[in-house]
Amino acid sequence: MFTLSQTSRAWFIDRARQAREERLVQKERERAAVVIQAHVRSFLCRSRLQRDTRREIDDFFKADDPGSTKRSALCVFKIARKLLFVFRIKEDNERFEKLCRSILSSMDAENEPKVWYVSLACSKDLTLLWIKQIKSILWYCCDFLKQLKPEILQDSRLITLYLTMLVTFTDTSTWKILRGKGESLRPAMNHICANIMGHLNQHGFYSVLQRCDGLFPDLVSHTPRNNPVRWSVGRSWYDWQLSH
């Protein structure tokens, strides 16, 4: 009788232990299922957001044809933020090219301060965001320069485009916003350029220039004795590229 009671008690304890372990396993399965579902939902949301963002960017550049009214600098800035948010160098290379062309086109506008992309550097609310954005854009230009091959015609034109971006936003001499009354802004803008150059140099800008110098001996000249990141574009080659 006593032995039977002990056996029943042991069986009951064992069953309770098994039930407890099964409950723990079930809870772990449920937790794992919740985590998997969360990751899947997150992936789907990100994919949908990226797809919608890229569609919006494509629509922006489709509407930005030569015959249309020039977009304001703020519009270009906002679309650039969206592109940089989803940017993947292989997937978005054409979008990035269009962004750079749009930015350079804005800088060529005559007597349209609101169109000049660089005008946002004068906005108290946007100065820091603009500097951060142009640093990212210019470094992506450097990334593309590392990959492009000058013997391929299309690549050669892209090299010209990205070098033009680097020339334009590391030297204030062509900024129309500094003409006339805007001359008083030059010290501040020169300081911004120095900040941008310092950022690029910290990330390997000088090595990019050395590569360009090896590809095109007349394209890039630098003066390490004065400043390791000071540079200029050889006008003969550069002007020829722009005219073709």
What do you see in this structure?
- This protein is mainly alpha-helical and 244 residues long.
- The protein has eight helices and two strands.
- It has helices at residues 2-63, 73-86, 93-108, 127-147, 153-168, 186-202, 205-215, 235-242; strands at 220-223, 227-233.
- A two-stranded antiparallel ribbon has the order 1-2.
- Strand 1 (220-223) and strand 2 (227-233) form a beta hairpin.
- The radius of gyration is 29 Å and the shape is elongated.
- The model is unreliable at 217-244 (pLDDT under 50).
Task: Describe what is shown at a glance.
This protein is mostly helical and 244 residues long.
Helix-residue proportion = 55-70%
Shape annotation: elongated
> How many beta-strand runs?
2
Per DSSP, the total helix count is 8
Label the structural class.
mainly alpha
Distance between the termini: 105 Å
Strands of the widest sheet, in order across it, are 1-2
Determine the strand fraction and express it as a percent band: under 5%
Which regions have little confidence, pLDDT < 50, spanning 5+ residues? 217-244
Element string (H = helix, E = strand): HHHHHHHEEH
Average pLDDT rating: 82
The gyration radius over C-alpha positions equals 29 Å
User: Main sheet, how many strands, which sense, barrel?
Assistant: 2 strands, antiparallel
